[in-house]
Design brief:
By secondary structure, the chain is of the alpha/beta class. It contains 14 helices and 13 strands. The protein starts with a strand and ends in a 6-residue tail after the last helix. The structure holds guanosine-5'-triphosphate (GTP) and magnesium ion (MG). Magnesium ion binds next to helix 8.
């Protein structure tokens, strides 16, 4: 934390400008060493200064340098940002000079990590920085900006203060039972208040599924026997020739992936090798992969051929799908029907005249309730860390409620409430584990 760190903050490539960011106690005097134009150490905070980067008598670039003094900066330390002409050689050269004069190369996410460790942002907001950078659609952007601006943190903080209040009331009653003017906290009253907190936690956990769906997308596997048209369907949905299509059974050997947006949610389609018993070594590896995709997918589309009867292999796959979200797509409905299958989630279509694909999309929208997404408020917990801590909060509250119902002494019940309170603090990063913090920020991109 004592080092002055630097990194290229813009994506590496050819562009109008690129930005190198420097943060730390010596950020301003260090950059001043290579800046010609004015004395940066004398510049007022939050100013942009025109000049040149000059090193060992050689002019490197014409630049604008932003000076931002602590604490009102991204990291809450002194921060300098050098606006260079965008270009790989110039940007690398200036970075290299900064390293030679005493800066250290920042680790991925280190600027945001410093903002967190210096207390400018909580952990939920820090995670949102990573999420907003990775947001590739409007819903994901909406979700991450709500976390970044503190809506989610406020919600977590309010749960925490409700628990603190209940704890305090219990304690007052236990410690000063003789006081007449304090509210008498009967078990029933405490249970009522805790049930309302539990329901709100439960709602947040339910909604986290939507949050994760928005950030990660929905994984949809196209599964079926060879030659039924899985790859043709993938290509038709993506409107591009992504996978090879031939009339030879066993054309697709490996997984082929493609993405599209449906109602603002990313669908990750996985086309797989047709499932059949085979002696071909390569094909059988493909088949094993296809079966694994059934497990990994959020949704399986079982593709059948309208011109053939339901085979034993297909019956077996249908049994595997019983507990899995799935849709049956009967393809090739331009040919005479031999397929007889009755299930509520069957869509008929073909990829010759492109029929049934809209119905298939509608079914997905309905299954994942994504039609009304834009009207929701987008304050969701959306990552595994937040979700697992929230689950533990839920369990602690449920334990407390159960304890009170079974007349467990209140001081035992308060231990569960304390657990819930500490877990909520952990969610916000008020208490943290160094290793977890290191891992979390190492997933960030460089320069953020
Ligand atoms: N008549 C008709 N033929 C189709 C339709 N969809 C695909 N086909 C044809 O069926 C054959 C197999 O199509 P693919 O998309 O390669 O089938 P697949 O399920 O990916 O096959 P594998 O990769 O071998 O598992 C090709 O000749 C396609 O042109 C359809 O809706 N109607
Ligand atoms: Mg195929």
């Amino acid at each position: 934390m004592d080092d002055t760190i630097c990194a290229i903050s813009t994506a590496m490539g050819v562009g109008g400008i690129s930005i190198i960011r420097i943060s730390g106690d010596h950020a301003i005097p260090l950059v001043d060493k290579i800046f010609v134009g004015k004395d940066l150490t004398e510049c007022a905070s939050h100013t942009i200064n025109y000049g040149h980067i000059v090193f060992e008598g050689q002019t490197i670039d014409e630049v604008l340098v932003s000076i931002m003094r602590a604490p009102r900066t991204y990291t809450a330390e002194d921060v300098v940002e050098i606006n260079l002409h965008g270009g790989i050689a110039t940007t690398n050269k200036v970075l290299e000079i900064l390293l030679r004069i005493g800066c250290r190369l920042a680790e991925p996410g280190e600027f945001t990590k410093r903002a967190f460790l210096n207390g400018r942002i909580d952990l939920v907001k820090a995670e949102a920085v990573g999420e907003i950078i990775n947001a590739d659609n409007e819903n994901a952007r909406n979700l991450s900006i709500n976390s970044l601006t503190g809506k989610l943190s406020d919600l977590i903080r309010s749960l925490k203060s409700r628990i603190v209040e209940i704890e305090a009331k219990i304690e007052v009653n236990v410690d000063y039972p003789e006081y007449e003017d304090i509210e008498d906290m009967t078990n029933e009253k405490v249970i009522d208040e805790l049930v309302s907190v539990r329901d709100d936690v439960c709602k947040m956990l339910d909604e986290s599924k939507t949050g994760k769906m928005i950030t990660d997308g929905i994984r949809v596997a196209l599964i079926g026997r060879p030659n039924v048209g899985k790859s043709s369907i993938l290509n038709a949905l993506l409107e591009e020739e992504k996978a090879i299509v031939t009339n030879i059974a066993g054309t697709t050997r490996d997984i082929v992936e493609g993405e599209m947006l449906l109602s603002g949610v990313k669908l990750k389609f996985i086309d797989t090798a047709g499932i059949r018993k085979t002696d071909d070594v390569v094909e059988s590896i493909g088949v094993t992969k296809s079966l694994a995709q059934i497990e990994e997918a959020d949704l399986v589309i079982l593709v059948l051929s309208n011109s053939e009867e339901l085979s034993d292999d297909e019956k077996e796959i249908l049994t595997r799908l019983e507990d899995k979200k799935h849709i049956v797509f009967v393809n090739k409905n331009d040919l005479t029907r031999k397929m007889n299958i009755s299930s509520k989630d069957v869509v008929y279509g073909n990829t010759v005249s492109i029929d049934g694909l809209d119905s298939l999309k509608e079914k997905i929208v309905e299954m994942f309730s994504i039609g009304d997404l834009p009207n929701r408020d987008f304050t969701y917990i959306s990552n595994a860390r937040q979700e697992s801590l929230m689950k533990k909060v839920y369990e602690a509250i449920v334990r407390a409620i159960r304890g009170l119902g079974n007349s467990v002494p209140v001081d035992i019940v308060t231990l569960d409430l304390k657990d819930a309170r500490i877990l909520l603090g952990e969610l916000l990063g008020e208490v943290y584990d160094d290793e977890l913090i290191d891992t979390l920020f190492s997933n960030f991109c460089l320069g953020k």
